[in-house]
Amino acid sequence: MKALLKIFVALTIGAVAFSCKKDTIKITNENRKEILLQYGKENPEKNVVIETDFGVIKIRLYEETPLHRANFVKLIKDGYYENNAEFYRIVERFVVQGGVPQKKLDYTIPAEITPNFFHKRGALAMARQTDNNPEMESSSTEFYFSQGSKYADWEFDEEVKNLEIKVTPEQRKLYTTIGGELQLDSKYTVFGEVTEGLDVIDKIAAVRVYSEHPYKKVPFKIKLEQ
Question: Which CATH number fits domain 2-225: 3.30.43.10, 3.40.50.10240, 3.40.50.300, 2.40.100.10?
Answer without folding.
Answer: 2.40.100.10
